[in-house]
């Protein structure tokens, strides 16, 4: 596994270098040639395929060099015609190569002239800067006392401001502190619900004795997961793994999809997520949702992108258990009654309802719905998927690679740093090769060391040309021995497992029966509608397309790691059937109530709720696009760390959500 990790790092580095060189070539081409190169790269299905990518780039580079040589020869021909003493003959391919070498020599001469001219400018600048430095030193000494006086005046003004802020206020009376017997009504209500429905009958008073994690701890863990994912997406190396060569050469910000992937269900979901990101950037973070006659009663958490100025048509937020930004301004102006109409904290703080009561109520709702346990299992599943039993080996190998690169980066000179900032790559020096081999306890063969010595003494243009030669060799898929071995292994595998390529089609259950204890695991299927109720029938690692669920209620039948598209749900209530890590696209929910069925790490695209009430089914880290709710009330189902875009909420009131 560690060997595969090193191989992936090597292939990713090679892919990054080819992408950078291809981007430089792409900028030099004409518009029609750029379109042709983009079309050639876009037709490559596998983003890890470097052979076909190299073929496209080498083909267009050769055409570009031929055109450059022809233009140079035309210029020389014009000069000869003006002189009238020589005549030009037809040039062969050998002459074109000589012209290419001459072009590189001219570029070297021009670069030398630029460097010497730049050094002379620096010398002149230093010469003229010396008297200016002495003059500025005298001015600073003359104005030092004035600056000290100004600093003292500013410090006095800031001290007065701080004194005004921290003035002591005197009041005739003050509310008594709440004792244990004077707990708020919300706290007592949640305590009562915990005793009857909570885990092991534990109440809020016995939280310390309960070993189950609190919601605040899980919420902090979810926030850390989201921040870690966002940071990984922004890392420079993430672009190489996620993007195709088409994206790297064209310098695209978002990864594109291959021709076949665009037509698949997973591709449709990815395109929906890309559309969500584009809308987020285009709107500048503004809310693009629409609400009509969908009030929110006693919401526990604010919406992900709640509009303060325009909340929708007849869709107010009533008695919210959190502070709104505009309410704080109203409270400062003295309009407390108007602020309390939409936010309870302004009015009920004196009665004992605090942010702790709000957290207690939210914890109770999530505990009763079973979301806390599902979130815990989802986080354990993520850990198992990321590392399993090889965490220590992978972490150690990864840290060694990162440390070696960091140490190498510290030894870069100014020219190498500039090349890294401008181009994203650079050539190593001879001592850096030796340092890398010493740190990794590697010994190079003598012939290879001699080649490195010769390579390090070559000019940059020659080394870059040799790099293109290596890319051309990759495009020819050389050496052939490796390709022969791979083909031989593939043929032996097909002969050893002849029936592995065939997939068994999922059989339809008879209409009217009940499926009990029938889990579906590792069985992708398509065009297989579900028409029977299901009890204890989870769907695990089974992606599906064009498989609607009609008249098929489900109890204790979760969806885990099973993407679906398109998959409409019609007249199929869900009870205790959460969706975990199962993205869905084009999956409208029609006349399908959700009860105790949370969505955890489950993106949705083009999946509206129509006449489908939701009870105790929160959405946790489950972004939605082109969805919403129509005539679908919601009770006790808050959206936690869940963003929605282009979502319409029509005649869909929500309570405690």
UniProtKB/TrEMBL annotation:
<feature type="coiled-coil region">
    <location>
        <begin position="61"/>
        <end position="116"/>
    </location>
</feature>
<keyword id="KW-0175">Coiled coil</keyword>
<dbReference type="Pfam" id="PF04870">
    <property type="entry name" value="Moulting_cycle"/>
</dbReference>
<dbReference type="InterPro" id="IPR006954">
    <property type="entry name" value="Mlt-10-like"/>
</dbReference>
<protein>
    <submittedName>
        <fullName>Uncharacterized protein</fullName>
    </submittedName>
</protein>
